[in-house]
Amino acid sequence: MLGIVTAGIAPGLALLSYFYLKDQYDSEPLSIVFRSFIFGSLLVFPIMFIQYVLDAENVVQGVLFKPFLTMGLLEEFFKWFILYFTVLQHTSFDEPYDGIVYGASVSLGFATIENIFYLFANGLEYALGRALLPVSSHALFGVIMGYYLGKSKFAKESKKKWLLLSLLIPFLLHGSYNYILIMLEDWLLPMIPFMIFLWYLGLKKVKKARLLSAHHMQDSHLIKKPFVS
């Protein structure tokens, strides 16, 4: 039991630590990051219930509905909802890169509990595959969501566009991931380039967010000292 819990938690904590330590300016309070992680983990229970009801009642049908709507949209919307209402307006969210940290935190909270449940049900032998695919993909969906939320908060214009993209792009990526895994019989071959692309996109957003934070911190410093020549 201890081995399963450890294997279930370790990938999420490792990835969260990686993205947290990439914050080169004002690191986020660990209490707020941990709170976001817990909120994300608690999302598993209502989402599992809703997905069970939708499946049992056969509410949605069709090739695209399950991977995109009952899984992709439902999960990403709840994560987006938590980020929007508990983090976005918080005083600790004071630079664009903070969106990366909080987005990864909520997503990895969700992925960690989901991972533990799966390993309890199916066995420890799936731990490595789960770490490489579902856990890391959830982390990257959260990174991308957080990047656009950071853009929305600190951009001088097009705030609604960035806010919309913060939900739309993770939803489409998550739905595509699910479609490959669920609907394709030989899913491993297309999954490899998809995950490479997802990591490339996620790390690109990390780099861009760090640059945005650098500019933001520089501008804030100059505003505080208006007579600097």
Automatic annotation (TrEMBL):
Q: Looking at the record's lineage, which domain of life comes first?
A: Bacteria
Entry's Gene Ontology molecular function annotations: peptidase activity
Signal peptide (residue range): none
Pfam families referenced in this protein's UniProt entry, alphabetically: PrsW-protease
Segments passing through the bilayer: 6-21, 33-54, 66-88, 100-121, 127-150, 162-181, 187-203
Supply the EC number(s): 3.4.-.-
Q: What is its main location?
A: membrane
Give the GO cellular component terms, alphabetically.
plasma membrane
Q: Name one GO biological process term.
A: proteolysis
Where does this protein reside within or beyond the cell? Answer: Cell membrane
UniProt KW keywords: Cell membrane, Hydrolase, Membrane, Protease, Transmembrane, Transmembrane helix
The topology of this chain with respect to the membrane is: Multi-pass membrane protein
Q: Which family does it belong to?
A: Belongs to the protease PrsW family.
Q: Its function?
A: Involved in the degradation of specific anti-sigma factors.
* PANTHER family per the UniProt record, alphabetical: PROTEASE PRSW (PTHR36844:SF1)
The name this protein carries in UniProt is Protease PrsW
Origin organism of this chain? Mesobacillus foraminis
